[in-house]
Amino acid sequence: MDEQTTQSKPRSPKRRRSGPRRIWPAVRRLLRTRIAAGLLTVIPIWVTWVVVKFVFDTMKSVTQPLAQWLKDLMLNAYPNLVPARVSDYFDYGVPIMAVLMTLFILYMLGFLTASVFGRRLIYLFDMIIAKLPLVKTVYRATKQVVTTVGGSRSMGFQRVVLVEFPRPGMKCIGFLTAVMKDVDTGRDMATVFVSTTPNPTTGYMQILPLEEVSETGWAVEDAVKLLMSGGILSPPMVPFDKVHPVQLGPNRSLKPIQEDEEAY
Predict the structure, then answer these.
(1) Handedness of CA 180, 181, 183, 185 (dihedral sign)
(2) CA dihedral defined by 115, 118, 122, 125, rounded to 10 degrees?
(3) Is the pTM of the predicted complex or chain greater than 0.70?
(4) How many CB atoms within 10 Å of residue 238?
(5) For 111-128, how does the pLDDT look when each residue is reduced to its tens digit (9 = 90+)?
(6) What is the mean pLDDT of the chain?
(7) Closest to 216 measured CA to CA, from 245, 190, 191, 196
């Protein structure tokens, strides 16, 4: 009887384990949030470090042999003035000296080009390059691009516009670079550089009527952030439905956008 009674008793339901099974999802969410926050902190620092290191190494490689030669010449000419222990630290100063020498050379070249004699030398150098078949094409194109981007004509690259692409009703972000005339009709045509996401430095160029280009009033920084973030970091307002004509300055040049100008 005792065995039958024991066997006939209903088994109590198993208690749910409320410990590790409930804690683990919270820990997993916390780890995912903290890791994502850490990535958002590290990535800008890492990109900045890579760019600065690339510029530093490039500048250092130009004049480092000369800096190394000067260091060896000084140590060999005056071996008694520099102790042996101190001379070991001179190797750390060679890269810094190389960068400073590169900056000094660039400054002297800029100072030379500002004079009449320097401009004549550059003109003579251009004439020599113009006689080389392949080199002249690369040199002229590179010089024109650098002069346009870094000179007084670089204002054209600071105009953020919208163009209809790839079909009517859809618009993409572009950078208005220049305005030119149609040889047949005489109407204004715009050259627009359309950037891609998430790398705004790549893209393609379009030529379209200027009346189809719409001003945004955005700064270049806002447009770049919008492209790199895939639309997450977007300005609060966008002139989408209506086309805002591009304002041209004197001599049909692109009118610069004022810093205090408000977006549409």
Answers:
(1) positive
(2) 170
(3) no
(4) 17
(5) 888 888 888 888 888 888
(6) 77
(7) 245
